Amino acid sequence: MLGARQFLFFIAFCLVHLVSTDEHNHVYDDNEEVVLWMSTVGPYHNRQETYSYFSLPFCAGPKAMIGHYHETLSEALQGIELKFSGLEIDFRADVAKTEFCGLKALSDHHLKAFIYAVKNQYWYQMYIDNLPIWGVVGEPEDNNGEISYYIWTHKKFDIGYNGKQIVDVNLTSENKVKLTPNAHISFSYEVNWRKTNVKFEDRFDKYLDPNFFQHRIHWFSIFNSFMMVIFLVGLVSMILMRTLRKDYARYSKDEEMDDIERDLGDEYGWKQVHGDVFRPASHPILFSALIGCGYQVTLVVLSVIVFAILGELYTERGSMLSTAIFMYAATSPLNGYAGGGLYARMGGRVWIKQMILSAFMLPIMVCGTAFFINFIAMYYHASRAIPFGSMVAVTCICIFVILPLTLVGTILGRNLAGTPDAPCRVNAVPRPIPEKKWFMEPLVIILLGGILPFGSIFIEMYFIFTSFWAYKIYYVYGFMLLVFVILMIVTVCVTIVCTYFLLNAEDYRWQWTSFLAAASTAGYVYIYSFYYFFFKTKMYGLFQTAFYFGYMALFSLALGIMCGTVGYIGTNAFVRKIYSTVKID
Ligand SMILES: *[C@@H]1O[C@H](CO)[C@@H](O)[C@H](O)[C@H]1NC(C)=O
Protein backbone atom coordinates (compact mmCIF):
# COMPACT_ATOMS: atom_id res chain seq x y z
CA MET A 1 0.00 0.00 0.00
CA LEU A 2 2.94 2.26 0.66
CA GLY A 3 3.86 2.19 -3.01
CA ALA A 4 0.36 2.92 -4.29
CA ARG A 5 0.23 6.48 -3.09
CA GLN A 6 3.70 7.22 -4.29
CA PHE A 7 2.93 5.69 -7.64
CA LEU A 8 -0.19 7.83 -8.02
CA PHE A 9 1.76 10.86 -6.97
CA PHE A 10 4.40 10.03 -9.54
CA ILE A 11 1.79 9.79 -12.29
CA ALA A 12 0.24 13.09 -11.24
CA PHE A 13 3.67 14.64 -11.15
CA CYS A 14 4.54 13.39 -14.63
CA LEU A 15 1.22 14.59 -15.92
CA VAL A 16 1.69 18.07 -14.57
CA HIS A 17 5.16 18.27 -16.04
CA LEU A 18 4.07 16.79 -19.31
CA VAL A 19 1.43 19.40 -19.89
CA SER A 20 3.10 22.49 -18.47
CA THR A 21 6.49 23.36 -19.85
CA ASP A 22 8.12 25.47 -17.18
CA GLU A 23 11.57 26.66 -17.92
CA HIS A 24 12.62 27.09 -14.32
CA ASN A 25 13.97 24.41 -12.09
CA HIS A 26 13.81 26.79 -9.11
CA VAL A 27 17.51 26.45 -8.21
CA TYR A 28 19.81 29.47 -8.42
CA ASP A 29 23.51 30.05 -7.93
CA ASP A 30 24.79 33.28 -6.42
CA ASN A 31 24.40 36.24 -8.77
CA GLU A 32 22.39 34.18 -11.19
CA GLU A 33 19.69 36.15 -12.99
CA VAL A 34 16.26 36.08 -11.35
CA VAL A 35 13.49 37.14 -13.69
CA LEU A 36 10.71 39.45 -12.59
CA TRP A 37 7.72 38.96 -14.89
CA MET A 38 5.09 41.65 -15.13
CA SER A 39 1.75 39.96 -15.61
CA THR A 40 -1.54 41.81 -15.58
CA VAL A 41 -3.22 44.89 -14.19
CA GLY A 42 -6.93 45.37 -13.58
CA PRO A 43 -9.66 46.52 -11.20
CA TYR A 44 -9.57 44.84 -7.80
CA HIS A 45 -13.23 43.82 -7.78
CA ASN A 46 -13.23 42.36 -11.29
CA ARG A 47 -10.78 39.57 -11.01
CA GLN A 48 -11.14 38.38 -14.59
CA GLU A 49 -10.98 41.81 -16.18
CA THR A 50 -7.24 42.00 -16.61
CA TYR A 51 -5.05 43.91 -19.00
CA SER A 52 -1.44 43.58 -19.93
CA TYR A 53 0.71 45.39 -17.34
CA PHE A 54 2.18 47.69 -19.96
CA SER A 55 -1.23 48.73 -21.24
CA LEU A 56 -0.95 51.37 -18.52
CA PRO A 57 1.82 53.85 -19.30
CA PHE A 58 4.28 52.10 -16.97
CA CYS A 59 7.79 51.82 -18.29
CA ALA A 60 10.18 48.90 -18.23
CA GLY A 61 13.72 48.78 -16.92
CA PRO A 62 16.79 49.04 -19.11
CA LYS A 63 17.86 45.42 -19.08
CA ALA A 64 17.38 43.75 -22.44
CA MET A 65 15.44 40.53 -22.61
CA ILE A 66 17.55 37.46 -23.09
CA GLY A 67 15.91 34.26 -24.08
CA HIS A 68 12.30 33.71 -24.77
CA TYR A 69 9.35 32.86 -22.64
CA HIS A 70 6.87 30.28 -23.84
CA GLU A 71 3.41 30.50 -22.44
CA THR A 72 1.64 27.21 -22.04
CA LEU A 73 -1.70 26.75 -23.73
CA SER A 74 -3.61 26.92 -20.48
CA GLU A 75 -1.87 30.13 -19.46
CA ALA A 76 -2.88 31.71 -22.74
CA LEU A 77 -6.45 30.51 -22.22
CA GLN A 78 -6.50 32.01 -18.73
CA GLY A 79 -5.30 35.38 -19.92
CA ILE A 80 -1.94 35.19 -18.17
CA GLU A 81 0.42 37.44 -20.09
CA LEU A 82 3.99 37.70 -18.96
CA LYS A 83 6.24 40.54 -20.02
CA PHE A 84 9.80 40.97 -18.89
CA SER A 85 10.15 43.82 -16.41
CA GLY A 86 13.64 44.82 -17.51
CA LEU A 87 14.82 44.97 -13.90
CA GLU A 88 18.20 43.62 -12.91
CA ILE A 89 17.68 41.18 -10.04
CA ASP A 90 20.36 38.63 -9.21
CA PHE A 91 20.25 35.88 -6.65
CA ARG A 92 21.50 37.07 -3.24
CA ALA A 93 22.70 40.40 -4.61
CA ASP A 94 21.06 43.33 -2.86
CA VAL A 95 20.13 46.31 -4.98
CA ALA A 96 20.01 49.72 -3.34
CA LYS A 97 17.27 52.13 -4.35
CA THR A 98 17.73 52.57 -8.11
CA GLU A 99 15.75 54.62 -10.57
CA PHE A 100 15.02 52.44 -13.58
CA CYS A 101 12.87 54.56 -15.84
CA GLY A 102 10.85 57.74 -15.88
CA LEU A 103 8.04 59.55 -17.62
CA LYS A 104 9.04 63.07 -18.45
CA ALA A 105 6.16 65.52 -18.52
CA LEU A 106 3.14 63.26 -18.09
CA SER A 107 0.95 63.71 -21.14
CA ASP A 108 -2.77 64.31 -20.85
CA HIS A 109 -3.52 60.92 -22.30
CA HIS A 110 -1.28 59.09 -19.82
CA LEU A 111 -2.52 61.17 -16.92
CA LYS A 112 -6.10 60.16 -17.69
CA ALA A 113 -5.13 56.49 -17.90
CA PHE A 114 -3.39 56.59 -14.51
CA ILE A 115 -6.21 58.51 -12.82
CA TYR A 116 -8.76 56.07 -14.22
CA ALA A 117 -6.71 53.17 -12.89
CA VAL A 118 -6.34 54.70 -9.43
CA LYS A 119 -10.03 55.58 -9.28
CA ASN A 120 -11.01 52.01 -10.11
CA GLN A 121 -8.62 50.48 -7.59
CA TYR A 122 -6.39 48.88 -10.19
CA TRP A 123 -3.73 46.56 -8.97
CA TYR A 124 -1.12 44.58 -10.76
CA GLN A 125 0.36 41.14 -10.55
CA MET A 126 3.97 40.06 -11.02
CA TYR A 127 5.83 36.79 -10.73
CA ILE A 128 9.22 35.94 -9.36
CA ASP A 129 10.14 32.29 -9.69
CA ASN A 130 6.44 31.38 -9.97
CA LEU A 131 5.55 33.23 -6.76
CA PRO A 132 2.83 35.79 -7.39
CA ILE A 133 3.30 39.33 -6.08
CA TRP A 134 0.60 41.96 -5.96
CA GLY A 135 0.76 45.69 -5.69
CA VAL A 136 -1.68 48.58 -6.01
CA VAL A 137 -1.23 51.23 -8.69
CA GLY A 138 -1.99 54.19 -6.46
CA GLU A 139 -4.51 55.70 -4.09
CA PRO A 140 -6.82 58.69 -3.95
CA GLU A 141 -6.57 61.20 -1.13
CA ASP A 142 -9.34 63.42 0.11
CA ASN A 143 -8.25 66.92 1.21
CA ASN A 144 -11.39 68.67 2.46
CA GLY A 145 -13.55 67.53 -0.41
CA GLU A 146 -10.93 67.92 -3.06
CA ILE A 147 -9.79 64.52 -4.27
CA SER A 148 -6.31 64.16 -5.67
CA TYR A 149 -4.77 60.99 -7.07
CA TYR A 150 -1.41 59.56 -6.20
CA ILE A 151 0.69 56.83 -7.78
CA TRP A 152 3.22 54.62 -6.01
CA THR A 153 6.58 54.89 -7.71
CA HIS A 154 8.96 52.85 -5.58
CA LYS A 155 8.86 49.06 -5.41
CA LYS A 156 10.75 47.46 -2.57
CA PHE A 157 11.25 43.71 -2.86
CA ASP A 158 12.12 41.64 0.17
CA ILE A 159 13.06 38.25 -1.13
CA GLY A 160 13.53 35.36 1.24
CA TYR A 161 15.83 32.51 0.25
CA ASN A 162 16.61 29.15 1.71
CA GLY A 163 19.73 27.56 0.33
CA LYS A 164 19.65 27.98 -3.41
CA GLN A 165 15.93 28.48 -3.63
CA ILE A 166 13.55 31.43 -3.42
CA VAL A 167 10.91 30.82 -0.80
CA ASP A 168 9.26 34.17 -0.06
CA VAL A 169 8.72 37.54 -1.70
CA ASN A 170 7.24 40.67 -0.14
CA LEU A 171 6.51 43.84 -2.04
CA THR A 172 6.27 47.21 -0.36
CA SER A 173 5.05 50.20 -2.37
CA GLU A 174 6.54 53.49 -1.33
CA ASN A 175 6.97 57.06 -2.46
CA LYS A 176 3.59 58.41 -3.57
CA VAL A 177 3.65 61.02 -6.33
CA LYS A 178 0.68 63.23 -7.07
CA LEU A 179 -0.75 62.83 -10.56
CA THR A 180 -0.83 66.28 -12.17
CA PRO A 181 -0.48 67.39 -15.79
CA ASN A 182 3.14 67.49 -16.92
CA ALA A 183 4.35 65.87 -13.71
CA HIS A 184 7.68 64.12 -13.88
CA ILE A 185 7.36 60.59 -12.61
CA SER A 186 10.33 58.33 -12.14
CA PHE A 187 10.04 54.71 -11.05
CA SER A 188 12.55 53.04 -8.79
CA TYR A 189 13.12 49.68 -7.17
CA GLU A 190 15.14 48.10 -4.42
CA VAL A 191 15.93 44.49 -3.59
CA ASN A 192 16.84 43.03 -0.21
CA TRP A 193 17.68 39.37 0.19
CA ARG A 194 16.96 37.68 3.49
CA LYS A 195 17.77 34.21 4.69
CA THR A 196 14.64 32.49 6.00
CA ASN A 197 13.79 29.05 7.26
CA VAL A 198 10.67 28.52 5.17
CA LYS A 199 10.93 25.23 3.33
CA PHE A 200 10.63 25.30 -0.46
CA GLU A 201 7.67 22.90 -0.35
CA ASP A 202 5.86 25.22 2.04
CA ARG A 203 6.44 28.45 0.19
CA PHE A 204 2.85 28.67 -1.05
CA ASP A 205 1.39 28.27 2.42
CA LYS A 206 1.34 31.99 3.07
CA TYR A 207 -1.10 32.46 0.19
CA LEU A 208 -3.62 30.07 1.72
CA ASP A 209 -6.26 31.38 4.03
CA PRO A 210 -7.34 28.86 6.66
CA ASN A 211 -9.53 31.48 8.34
CA PHE A 212 -11.64 31.72 5.23
CA PHE A 213 -11.95 27.98 4.64
CA GLN A 214 -13.17 27.43 8.14
CA HIS A 215 -12.93 23.78 8.84
CA ARG A 216 -15.71 23.98 11.41
CA ILE A 217 -18.24 25.16 8.82
CA HIS A 218 -16.96 22.58 6.40
CA TRP A 219 -17.33 19.72 8.82
CA PHE A 220 -20.71 20.99 9.92
CA SER A 221 -22.05 21.10 6.37
CA ILE A 222 -20.62 17.70 5.60
CA PHE A 223 -22.19 16.30 8.74
CA ASN A 224 -25.56 17.73 7.67
CA SER A 225 -25.28 16.30 4.19
CA PHE A 226 -24.22 13.01 5.63
CA MET A 227 -27.39 12.84 7.73
CA MET A 228 -29.36 13.51 4.57
CA VAL A 229 -27.50 10.70 2.83
CA ILE A 230 -28.40 8.26 5.58
CA PHE A 231 -32.04 9.28 5.44
CA LEU A 232 -32.18 8.97 1.65
CA VAL A 233 -30.39 5.66 1.51
CA GLY A 234 -32.90 4.41 4.10
CA LEU A 235 -35.78 5.64 1.98
CA VAL A 236 -34.48 3.97 -1.15
CA SER A 237 -33.85 0.67 0.57
CA MET A 238 -37.37 0.81 1.96
CA ILE A 239 -38.80 1.29 -1.51
CA LEU A 240 -36.67 -1.53 -2.87
CA MET A 241 -37.76 -3.83 -0.07
CA ARG A 242 -41.40 -2.98 -0.60
CA THR A 243 -41.32 -3.62 -4.32
CA LEU A 244 -39.23 -6.72 -4.17
CA ARG A 245 -40.59 -8.34 -1.02
CA LYS A 246 -43.79 -9.63 -2.58
CA ASP A 247 -41.88 -11.13 -5.43
CA TYR A 248 -39.41 -12.91 -3.25
CA ALA A 249 -42.22 -14.17 -1.09
CA ARG A 250 -43.98 -15.35 -4.19
CA TYR A 251 -41.04 -17.42 -5.35
CA SER A 252 -41.02 -19.31 -2.14
CA LYS A 253 -44.71 -20.17 -2.41
CA ASP A 254 -46.08 -22.52 -4.99
CA GLU A 255 -47.32 -21.48 -8.37
CA GLU A 256 -51.06 -21.67 -7.58
CA MET A 257 -50.93 -19.14 -4.81
CA ASP A 258 -49.00 -16.91 -7.09
CA ASP A 259 -51.71 -16.91 -9.74
CA ILE A 260 -54.44 -16.26 -7.22
CA GLU A 261 -52.53 -13.39 -5.78
CA ARG A 262 -52.03 -11.89 -9.21
CA ASP A 263 -55.72 -12.28 -10.07
CA LEU A 264 -56.60 -10.46 -6.91
CA GLY A 265 -55.18 -7.28 -8.35
CA ASP A 266 -51.56 -7.26 -7.42
CA GLU A 267 -50.86 -5.70 -10.77
CA TYR A 268 -50.91 -2.06 -10.00
CA GLY A 269 -48.69 0.95 -10.39
CA TRP A 270 -45.22 0.37 -11.66
CA LYS A 271 -45.87 -3.23 -12.69
CA GLN A 272 -48.48 -2.12 -15.18
CA VAL A 273 -45.94 -0.43 -17.38
CA HIS A 274 -43.53 -3.35 -17.71
CA GLY A 275 -44.22 -3.43 -21.44
CA ASP A 276 -43.15 0.17 -21.86
CA VAL A 277 -40.40 1.02 -19.36
CA PHE A 278 -37.68 -0.19 -21.66
CA ARG A 279 -39.05 1.67 -24.65
CA PRO A 280 -36.18 3.81 -25.96
CA ALA A 281 -36.13 7.39 -24.72
CA SER A 282 -37.42 10.03 -27.06
CA HIS A 283 -34.67 11.88 -28.96
CA PRO A 284 -32.26 8.95 -28.53
CA ILE A 285 -29.38 10.71 -30.29
CA LEU A 286 -29.39 13.66 -27.92
CA PHE A 287 -30.03 11.45 -24.92
CA SER A 288 -27.17 9.05 -25.53
CA ALA A 289 -24.83 11.91 -26.41
CA LEU A 290 -25.66 13.57 -23.09
CA ILE A 291 -25.09 10.36 -21.17
CA GLY A 292 -21.78 9.67 -22.92
CA CYS A 293 -20.65 13.21 -22.24
CA GLY A 294 -21.78 12.90 -18.63
CA TYR A 295 -19.64 9.80 -18.07
CA GLN A 296 -16.67 11.72 -19.38
CA VAL A 297 -17.28 14.87 -17.34
CA THR A 298 -17.74 12.84 -14.17
CA LEU A 299 -14.46 11.04 -14.67
CA VAL A 300 -12.62 14.25 -15.53
CA VAL A 301 -13.92 16.04 -12.45
CA LEU A 302 -13.10 13.10 -10.22
CA SER A 303 -9.58 12.71 -11.57
CA VAL A 304 -8.80 16.42 -11.44
CA ILE A 305 -9.86 16.50 -7.79
CA VAL A 306 -7.69 13.49 -7.03
CA PHE A 307 -4.69 14.97 -8.85
CA ALA A 308 -5.25 18.23 -7.02
CA ILE A 309 -5.15 16.38 -3.69
CA LEU A 310 -1.98 14.50 -4.60
CA GLY A 311 -0.13 17.12 -6.58
CA GLU A 312 -0.92 20.53 -5.04
CA LEU A 313 -1.75 21.88 -8.48
CA TYR A 314 -2.32 25.41 -7.25
CA THR A 315 1.40 26.06 -7.05
CA GLU A 316 1.87 26.00 -10.81
CA ARG A 317 0.21 28.58 -13.00
CA GLY A 318 -2.47 27.01 -15.16
CA SER A 319 -1.66 23.43 -14.27
CA MET A 320 -5.25 22.80 -13.17
CA LEU A 321 -6.59 23.73 -16.58
CA SER A 322 -3.85 21.76 -18.31
CA THR A 323 -4.72 18.68 -16.29
CA ALA A 324 -8.41 19.12 -17.07
CA ILE A 325 -7.77 19.46 -20.82
CA PHE A 326 -5.46 16.48 -20.81
CA MET A 327 -7.91 14.34 -18.86
CA TYR A 328 -10.78 15.43 -21.07
CA ALA A 329 -8.93 14.30 -24.18
CA ALA A 330 -7.73 11.11 -22.53
CA THR A 331 -11.21 10.07 -21.39
CA SER A 332 -12.87 10.57 -24.78
CA PRO A 333 -13.06 6.81 -25.45
CA LEU A 334 -15.27 6.45 -22.38
CA ASN A 335 -17.64 9.03 -23.83
CA GLY A 336 -17.86 7.09 -27.08
CA TYR A 337 -18.22 3.76 -25.34
CA ALA A 338 -21.03 4.80 -22.99
CA GLY A 339 -22.90 6.96 -25.49
CA GLY A 340 -22.44 4.65 -28.46
CA GLY A 341 -23.36 1.56 -26.46
CA LEU A 342 -26.50 3.16 -25.08
CA TYR A 343 -27.52 4.41 -28.52
CA ALA A 344 -27.07 0.95 -30.02
CA ARG A 345 -29.09 -0.64 -27.21
CA MET A 346 -31.88 1.79 -27.98
CA GLY A 347 -31.80 0.55 -31.57
CA GLY A 348 -30.23 3.67 -33.05
CA ARG A 349 -28.87 3.51 -36.57
CA VAL A 350 -27.37 6.94 -37.34
CA TRP A 351 -24.43 6.35 -35.07
CA ILE A 352 -22.04 8.76 -36.78
CA LYS A 353 -24.32 11.67 -36.02
CA GLN A 354 -24.63 10.49 -32.43
CA MET A 355 -20.86 10.14 -32.10
CA ILE A 356 -20.13 13.61 -33.47
CA LEU A 357 -22.73 15.15 -31.20
CA SER A 358 -21.26 13.23 -28.27
CA ALA A 359 -17.69 14.27 -29.01
CA PHE A 360 -18.32 17.92 -29.73
CA MET A 361 -21.23 18.80 -27.46
CA LEU A 362 -19.14 20.11 -24.59
CA PRO A 363 -16.26 21.56 -26.65
CA ILE A 364 -18.77 23.49 -28.74
CA MET A 365 -20.54 24.85 -25.68
CA VAL A 366 -17.21 25.89 -24.18
CA CYS A 367 -15.90 27.41 -27.39
CA GLY A 368 -19.20 29.15 -28.08
CA THR A 369 -19.14 30.84 -24.69
CA ALA A 370 -15.45 31.66 -25.00
CA PHE A 371 -15.98 33.06 -28.48
CA PHE A 372 -18.76 35.32 -27.27
CA ILE A 373 -16.71 36.53 -24.29
CA ASN A 374 -13.75 36.94 -26.60
CA PHE A 375 -15.55 39.53 -28.66
CA ILE A 376 -16.12 41.67 -25.60
CA ALA A 377 -12.56 41.06 -24.41
CA MET A 378 -11.18 42.20 -27.73
CA TYR A 379 -13.32 45.31 -27.59
CA TYR A 380 -11.90 46.02 -24.14
CA HIS A 381 -8.34 45.05 -25.21
CA ALA A 382 -8.32 42.78 -22.18
CA SER A 383 -5.67 40.13 -21.77
CA ARG A 384 -8.45 37.56 -21.62
CA ALA A 385 -8.84 37.77 -25.36
CA ILE A 386 -7.74 34.34 -26.51
CA PRO A 387 -4.91 34.54 -29.06
CA PHE A 388 -5.53 33.08 -32.49
CA GLY A 389 -2.82 30.46 -31.99
CA SER A 390 -4.54 29.07 -28.89
CA MET A 391 -7.83 28.84 -30.73
CA VAL A 392 -6.13 26.82 -33.47
CA ALA A 393 -4.51 24.60 -30.85
CA VAL A 394 -7.83 23.90 -29.15
CA THR A 395 -9.51 23.17 -32.47
CA CYS A 396 -6.70 20.77 -33.37
CA ILE A 397 -7.05 18.96 -30.05
CA CYS A 398 -10.78 18.55 -30.73
CA ILE A 399 -10.40 17.28 -34.27
CA PHE A 400 -7.21 15.24 -34.10
CA VAL A 401 -7.36 13.86 -30.57
CA ILE A 402 -10.87 13.94 -29.15
CA LEU A 403 -12.73 12.88 -32.29
CA PRO A 404 -10.60 9.81 -33.15
CA LEU A 405 -10.60 8.65 -29.53
CA THR A 406 -14.36 9.04 -29.35
CA LEU A 407 -14.65 7.08 -32.59
CA VAL A 408 -12.65 4.20 -31.12
CA GLY A 409 -14.84 4.26 -28.02
CA THR A 410 -18.05 4.36 -30.04
CA ILE A 411 -17.08 1.39 -32.20
CA LEU A 412 -16.10 -0.61 -29.11
CA GLY A 413 -19.29 0.44 -27.33
CA ARG A 414 -21.55 -0.53 -30.22
CA ASN A 415 -19.92 -3.91 -30.61
CA LEU A 416 -19.33 -4.89 -27.01
CA ALA A 417 -22.26 -3.25 -25.23
CA GLY A 418 -24.71 -2.66 -28.06
CA THR A 419 -27.10 -5.59 -27.83
CA PRO A 420 -30.44 -4.80 -26.17
CA ASP A 421 -30.56 -6.51 -22.78
CA ALA A 422 -33.74 -5.24 -21.17
CA PRO A 423 -35.28 -7.70 -18.71
CA CYS A 424 -38.82 -7.14 -20.10
CA ARG A 425 -40.06 -7.22 -23.66
CA VAL A 426 -41.32 -3.92 -25.08
CA ASN A 427 -44.92 -3.98 -26.33
CA ALA A 428 -45.50 -3.03 -29.93
CA VAL A 429 -48.12 -0.44 -29.11
CA PRO A 430 -47.30 2.20 -26.50
CA ARG A 431 -49.63 2.31 -23.55
CA PRO A 432 -51.51 5.58 -23.06
CA ILE A 433 -50.30 7.52 -20.04
CA PRO A 434 -53.17 7.98 -17.58
CA GLU A 435 -54.17 11.33 -16.09
CA LYS A 436 -52.48 11.96 -12.77
CA LYS A 437 -52.25 14.49 -10.00
CA TRP A 438 -50.27 17.64 -10.78
CA PHE A 439 -47.40 16.80 -8.52
CA MET A 440 -46.82 13.58 -10.40
CA GLU A 441 -46.21 15.39 -13.66
CA PRO A 442 -42.63 14.91 -14.89
CA LEU A 443 -42.02 18.66 -14.95
CA VAL A 444 -42.86 19.03 -11.26
CA ILE A 445 -40.79 15.98 -10.37
CA ILE A 446 -37.87 17.43 -12.32
CA LEU A 447 -38.08 20.74 -10.49
CA LEU A 448 -38.33 19.11 -7.08
CA GLY A 449 -35.55 16.61 -7.82
CA GLY A 450 -32.74 19.14 -7.67
CA ILE A 451 -33.54 20.64 -4.29
CA LEU A 452 -31.90 18.11 -2.01
CA PRO A 453 -28.71 17.64 -4.06
CA PHE A 454 -28.36 21.40 -4.25
CA GLY A 455 -28.83 21.59 -0.50
CA SER A 456 -25.95 19.20 -0.02
CA ILE A 457 -23.49 21.28 -2.05
CA PHE A 458 -24.38 24.93 -1.76
CA ILE A 459 -22.02 25.70 1.12
CA GLU A 460 -19.15 24.21 -0.85
CA MET A 461 -20.33 26.19 -3.87
CA TYR A 462 -19.76 29.36 -1.90
CA PHE A 463 -16.13 28.42 -1.26
CA ILE A 464 -15.55 27.36 -4.84
CA PHE A 465 -17.10 30.51 -6.26
CA THR A 466 -15.11 32.71 -3.93
CA SER A 467 -11.87 31.06 -4.86
CA PHE A 468 -12.60 31.60 -8.52
CA TRP A 469 -14.18 35.04 -8.52
CA ALA A 470 -12.30 36.55 -5.61
CA TYR A 471 -8.76 36.12 -4.46
CA LYS A 472 -8.73 32.96 -2.42
CA ILE A 473 -6.69 29.97 -3.39
CA TYR A 474 -8.79 26.84 -3.06
CA TYR A 475 -6.77 24.12 -1.43
CA VAL A 476 -9.15 21.95 0.59
CA TYR A 477 -9.63 19.39 -2.16
CA GLY A 478 -10.18 16.65 0.35
CA PHE A 479 -13.42 18.36 1.35
CA MET A 480 -14.28 18.81 -2.27
CA LEU A 481 -13.89 15.09 -2.89
CA LEU A 482 -16.11 14.32 0.08
CA VAL A 483 -18.77 16.75 -1.13
CA PHE A 484 -18.52 15.28 -4.62
CA VAL A 485 -19.16 11.78 -3.30
CA ILE A 486 -22.06 12.98 -1.15
CA LEU A 487 -23.55 14.83 -4.10
CA MET A 488 -23.41 11.69 -6.21
CA ILE A 489 -25.08 9.55 -3.55
CA VAL A 490 -27.80 12.10 -2.86
CA THR A 491 -28.45 12.55 -6.57
CA VAL A 492 -28.80 8.83 -7.18
CA CYS A 493 -31.12 8.35 -4.20
CA VAL A 494 -33.33 11.31 -5.06
CA THR A 495 -33.72 10.29 -8.69
CA ILE A 496 -34.57 6.75 -7.70
CA VAL A 497 -37.32 8.01 -5.41
CA CYS A 498 -38.58 10.38 -8.13
CA THR A 499 -38.63 7.59 -10.70
CA TYR A 500 -40.44 5.28 -8.34
CA PHE A 501 -43.25 7.81 -7.93
CA LEU A 502 -43.35 8.42 -11.66
CA LEU A 503 -43.60 4.73 -12.50
CA ASN A 504 -46.26 4.20 -9.85
CA ALA A 505 -48.30 6.86 -11.59
CA GLU A 506 -47.99 4.57 -14.62
CA ASP A 507 -45.87 7.03 -16.52
CA TYR A 508 -43.02 5.19 -18.21
CA ARG A 509 -41.02 8.19 -19.49
CA TRP A 510 -38.43 7.71 -16.80
CA GLN A 511 -35.20 8.13 -18.76
CA TRP A 512 -35.48 11.81 -19.47
CA THR A 513 -37.24 12.46 -16.19
CA SER A 514 -34.47 10.87 -14.15
CA PHE A 515 -31.79 12.68 -16.15
CA LEU A 516 -33.48 16.05 -15.85
CA ALA A 517 -34.53 15.62 -12.22
CA ALA A 518 -30.88 15.16 -11.32
CA ALA A 519 -29.70 17.86 -13.73
CA SER A 520 -32.05 20.43 -12.23
CA THR A 521 -29.53 20.70 -9.36
CA ALA A 522 -27.49 22.77 -11.80
CA GLY A 523 -30.45 25.05 -12.40
CA TYR A 524 -30.50 25.85 -8.69
CA VAL A 525 -26.75 26.42 -8.77
CA TYR A 526 -27.22 28.91 -11.57
CA ILE A 527 -29.93 30.71 -9.62
CA TYR A 528 -27.61 30.75 -6.62
CA SER A 529 -24.92 32.31 -8.79
CA PHE A 530 -27.23 35.31 -9.33
CA TYR A 531 -27.57 35.72 -5.59
CA TYR A 532 -23.80 35.39 -5.26
CA PHE A 533 -23.19 38.02 -7.91
CA PHE A 534 -25.49 40.62 -6.42
CA PHE A 535 -24.84 40.10 -2.73
CA LYS A 536 -21.35 38.65 -2.37
CA THR A 537 -19.29 40.40 -5.00
CA LYS A 538 -18.73 43.93 -6.21
CA MET A 539 -18.18 43.17 -9.85
CA TYR A 540 -19.18 45.77 -12.38
CA GLY A 541 -18.87 46.56 -16.06
CA LEU A 542 -20.03 44.74 -19.17
CA PHE A 543 -16.96 42.57 -19.55
CA GLN A 544 -16.91 41.14 -16.05
CA THR A 545 -20.68 40.66 -15.96
CA ALA A 546 -20.72 38.85 -19.29
CA PHE A 547 -17.74 36.79 -18.22
CA TYR A 548 -19.38 35.86 -14.93
CA PHE A 549 -22.76 34.84 -16.28
CA GLY A 550 -21.30 33.20 -19.39
CA TYR A 551 -18.91 30.96 -17.52
CA MET A 552 -21.36 30.30 -14.70
CA ALA A 553 -23.84 29.06 -17.30
CA LEU A 554 -21.16 26.81 -18.70
CA PHE A 555 -20.22 25.54 -15.25
CA SER A 556 -23.88 24.85 -14.46
CA LEU A 557 -24.38 23.04 -17.76
CA ALA A 558 -21.41 20.77 -17.13
CA LEU A 559 -22.61 20.16 -13.57
CA GLY A 560 -26.09 19.40 -14.90
CA ILE A 561 -24.80 16.89 -17.44
CA MET A 562 -22.71 15.25 -14.74
CA CYS A 563 -25.50 15.02 -12.14
CA GLY A 564 -28.03 13.99 -14.79
CA THR A 565 -25.86 11.14 -15.93
CA VAL A 566 -25.14 9.92 -12.44
CA GLY A 567 -28.85 10.08 -11.64
CA TYR A 568 -29.67 8.16 -14.80
CA ILE A 569 -27.06 5.47 -14.11
CA GLY A 570 -28.43 4.89 -10.63
CA THR A 571 -32.04 4.88 -11.76
CA ASN A 572 -31.26 2.57 -14.63
CA ALA A 573 -29.83 0.02 -12.22
CA PHE A 574 -32.87 0.41 -9.96
CA VAL A 575 -35.39 -0.02 -12.79
CA ARG A 576 -33.60 -3.09 -14.10
CA LYS A 577 -33.57 -4.58 -10.64
CA ILE A 578 -37.26 -4.16 -9.92
CA TYR A 579 -38.46 -5.25 -13.35
CA SER A 580 -36.17 -8.25 -13.50
CA THR A 581 -38.45 -9.94 -10.98
CA VAL A 582 -41.68 -9.19 -12.84
CA LYS A 583 -43.06 -12.27 -14.54
CA ILE A 584 -44.62 -11.77 -17.90
CA ASP A 585 -47.28 -14.07 -19.20
C1 LIG B 1 7.35 39.08 4.45
O1 LIG B 1 6.35 39.53 5.32
C2 LIG B 1 5.98 38.61 6.34
C3 LIG B 1 4.83 39.19 7.13
O2 LIG B 1 5.00 40.53 7.40
C4 LIG B 1 7.19 38.29 7.20
O3 LIG B 1 6.86 37.34 8.19
C5 LIG B 1 8.30 37.74 6.32
O4 LIG B 1 9.46 37.51 7.09
C6 LIG B 1 8.63 38.72 5.19
N1 LIG B 1 9.58 38.09 4.30
C7 LIG B 1 10.72 38.69 3.94
C8 LIG B 1 11.60 37.93 3.02
O5 LIG B 1 11.04 39.78 4.33
UniProtKB/TrEMBL annotation:
Question: Where in the cell does this protein reside?
Answer: Membrane
Q: One matching Pfam family, short form? A: EMP70
Mind listing the GO biological process terms from this record?
A: protein localization to membrane
Q: Give the record's membrane topology.
A: Multi-pass membrane protein
- State the GO CC annotations: membrane
- Keyword presence, Transmembrane helix: yes
Where along the sequence do coiled-coil regions lie?
Answer: none
- InterPro entries hit by this protein: EMP70 (IPR004240)
- Signal peptide range: 1-21
**Keyword Repeat carried by entry:** no
Q: Which UniProt keywords apply?
A: Membrane, Signal, Transmembrane, Transmembrane helix
- Membrane spanning residue stretches: 219-241, 285-310, 325-344, 356-380, 386-408, 443-465, 477-503, 515-534, 546-569
Family to which the UniProt record says this protein belongs: Belongs to the nonaspanin (TM9SF) (TC 9.A.2) family.
Protein name per Swiss-Prot or TrEMBL: Transmembrane 9 superfamily member
Organism of this sequence: Fopius arisanus
Give the encoding gene's name.
TM9SF3
